[in-house]
């Protein structure tokens, strides 16, 4: 995947957070059974050397595990986390397998239930505009 719109669309899909990364999976629904993957590692993680190292490791994992455990016709996005920098490669492999199983356990097309933040709702209710009309 190379287009920003594809990454943003994947963000609306299913997610499986793990210590070393977050896996996003979203079915494209275009009838194409090809699996695509994308990798994102932000500058918060580290400099270019560290980010490129993480991306190389994720690429190897994706090429190894997605054909076997991935979702056909879906986009898979791996988002690097700071805990994944020096993580053992075997642990990362196990976490990706676990994340793919977790994503596959939910029926396709079903998004995970979103938790509502009650503090935001209370804040919205309390900041309602009270309009006063002053005529003089």
UniProtKB/TrEMBL annotation:
<feature type="region of interest" description="Disordered">
    <location>
        <begin position="102"/>
        <end position="136"/>
    </location>
</feature>
<comment type="subunit">
    <text>Consists of a catalytic RNA component (M1 or rnpB) and a protein subunit.</text>
</comment>
<dbReference type="Pfam" id="PF00825">
    <property type="entry name" value="Ribonuclease_P"/>
</dbReference>
<keyword id="KW-0540">Nuclease</keyword>
<dbReference type="InterPro" id="IPR000100">
    <property type="entry name" value="RNase_P"/>
</dbReference>
<keyword id="KW-0819">tRNA processing</keyword>
<dbReference type="InterPro" id="IPR014721">
    <property type="entry name" value="Ribsml_uS5_D2-typ_fold_subgr"/>
</dbReference>
<comment type="function">
    <text>RNaseP catalyzes the removal of the 5'-leader sequence from pre-tRNA to produce the mature 5'-terminus. It can also cleave other RNA substrates such as 4.5S RNA. The protein component plays an auxiliary but essential role in vivo by binding to the 5'-leader sequence and broadening the substrate specificity of the ribozyme.</text>
</comment>
<dbReference type="GO" id="GO:0030677">
    <property type="term" value="C:ribonuclease P complex"/>
</dbReference>
<keyword id="KW-0378">Hydrolase</keyword>
<dbReference type="GO" id="GO:0042781">
    <property type="term" value="F:3'-tRNA processing endoribonuclease activity"/>
</dbReference>
<keyword id="KW-0694">RNA-binding</keyword>
<protein>
    <recommendedName>
        <fullName>Ribonuclease P protein component</fullName>
        <ecNumber>3.1.26.5</ecNumber>
    </recommendedName>
</protein>
<dbReference type="GO" id="GO:0000049">
    <property type="term" value="F:tRNA binding"/>
</dbReference>
<comment type="similarity">
    <text>Belongs to the RnpA family.</text>
</comment>
<dbReference type="InterPro" id="IPR020568">
    <property type="entry name" value="Ribosomal_Su5_D2-typ_SF"/>
</dbReference>
<dbReference type="GO" id="GO:0001682">
    <property type="term" value="P:tRNA 5'-leader removal"/>
</dbReference>
<dbReference type="GO" id="GO:0004526">
    <property type="term" value="F:ribonuclease P activity"/>
</dbReference>
<keyword id="KW-0255">Endonuclease</keyword>
